[in-house]
Each structure stands twice: as C-alpha cells, then as structure tokens.
Design goal:
Number of helices: 10
Structural class: mainly alpha
Order of helices and strands: HHHHHHHHEEHH
Oligomer: single chain
Length: 275
C-alpha cells in the first residue's frame, strides 16, 4: 500500500502542475486549459495501462469537466475588465450549445485515434496561422452576417467538444480575423468555453460509459481523481492569467497562444504517427 502511494506522488505532482498552467492559459488566452489538459492526461493515463484509444476519450471528457469551473473563474476576471463582448456571446451561444451536445454524442462513436489526430491537426493549423500572422492586420474589417456567424459558432462548438478544449482555440483566431480586438476576443472566447463544456459534460455523464481498461476513479468517461487534483488550481490561477494578459499587447498574446498550440498539437501528432 505504501509503495502504491509513493508511486502515485509523481502523477499527482504532474496533475497539479498541469492545473496551474491550464488555469494561467485559461485566463491568458481564453482557452479553458484543454490544450494542456488533454495531452497531459492522454500520456499520463497510459502509465496506468490504459490504451491510447481509451486514454484520449477519458482525457477529452475529463478536460471538458475541468473547463466548467475554470471557465467560470476566467469569465469573471475578463468580465470585470470589460473584455466580454455580450452581443457576440448572446448570438453565438445557442449555436455553440446545440453543436456541443451533438459533438459530445459523437465522441462515444468516433475512434480514439481519430480524436487524437483531430486534436493535433487543429492545434497545429491554428498555431501556424497565429504565429505567422501575430502582427498582421485582420483579414476582414468586421464580422460577417448573422448566418455566417452561426456557422462559425456551430463549428466552434462541435470541434471544440470533440477534442476536449474550450472556446478559445478556435474562437480567438476566428474573432480576431474579423477585427475583434485580441483581449476582447480572449474574454468572449472564455465565455464560449463554459457554453461548450457544461452541456457536453452533462451529456457525457448521461451517455458515456467507462472503458474496460479505465483507471481507478472513473465515472463514465470522466476521471474524478484527475478532476479533483486540477480544478482547485485551474480556478485559482485563471484570474492570474487574465491579469498577465492585460499587460501584454495583441501581438504578444497571439504568439504565446500560437507556441502553446504548436507544442501540444505536434506532440499529439507524433503520438498518432507512432501508434
């Protein structure tokens, strides 16, 4: 028993460190922390003899559960700084919610390797776009029609849920491409994260089943010990990230976001290639 507890300490420390970084990134970039949480859980779970296919499913579901309280903390910090665009949030939320539920249902049917590949491809594409265009002007002068905004919101909800991330990974580059200021895009995307994660987690808890090789503490597809280890730290450090973000200019924010995405996305693609 003592040996088992001692062997678990490195895992606990890794989860806690991940919680700190995920919280800071959630506040800094409006991403909900999933771009850190998903790959870390994906690799840690495999130390417990969980298959890569099961690991990505558990990592995605657990990440979405962690995003809920993290996003609430991040939203509060950004709202008080005036960085949440309420008209955009109101229009996009309905589309995001519906397609978040659809995406969470698809998770139970899509192959785990496909989810891993999807995460890597989306992360790398978005990161390269932001990295090479960090100081470039917006592609468009204003947001498109309400119809096209609905399409963008639907894709943001669907794809974000399926790879276990908040609204920032897709929401921030989309909004900034249409001349929404980066700080405002980050704050609004933080709110997207809550609209994405909350219905998705409820759906997964109702319909998701724990894989046969799931580790100790799984409730459906959500790993409760990982959730409990990380949530206090993500919630605590999300406002810290928001304060840091307020001191950086838009080009710096985009570069930080791009580097974080590029590292995590590349690592996931490497894992798929080695399977």
């Amino acid at each position: 028993m003592l040996n088992e507890l001692l062997s678990a300490w490195p895992i606990l420390i890794a989860l806690m460190v991940t919680g700190v970084f995920a919280g800071i990134l959630a506040g800094l970039l409006g991403v909900g922390g999933g771009i850190v949480i998903v790959p870390v859980l994906y690799f840690l779970l495999q130390f417990f003899d969980v298959s890569p296919t099961s690991a990505i499913e558990i990592a995605v579901a657990t990440s979405l559960a962690i995003i809920v309280p993290t996003a609430i903390s991040s939203i509060r910090a950004h709202y008080f700084k005036g960085n949440v665009d309420l008209p955009i949030l109101k229009w996009w939320s309905g589309f995001i919610l519906v397609f978040a539920v659809i995406g969470s249902l698809l998770i139970t049917y899509v192959n785990g390797e496909s989810l891993t590949l999807m995460f890597g491809v989306i992360a790398v594409c978005v990161s390269l776009n932001l990295l090479f265009r960090a100081s470039a002007p917006s592609l468009f002068s204003e947001l498109p029609s309400k119809l096209w905004q609905g399409v963008m919101a639907s894709l943001t909800g669907l794809l974000s849920v399926m790879i276990g991330i908040g609204g920032g990974t897709l929401g921030v580059p989309l909004l900034t491409s249409f001349n929404v200021k980066t700080h405002r895009a980050v704050g609004t995307a933080a709110a997207f994260g809550l609209v994405i994660a909350l219905p998705a987690v409820i759906t997964l808890l109702l319909v998701g089943q724990a894989p046969t090789d799931a580790p100790f503490g799984n409730f459906g597809l959500v790993n409760v010990p990982a959730f409990l280890a990380m949530v206090p730290l993500t919630v605590m450090f999300a406002p810290v990230g928001a304060r840091i973000g307020a001191t950086l200019d838009q080009a710096q924010l985009k570069r930080v976001f791009a580097v974080a995405l590029l590292i995590t996305g590349s690592r996931m693609l490497y894992q798929v290639a080695s399977l």
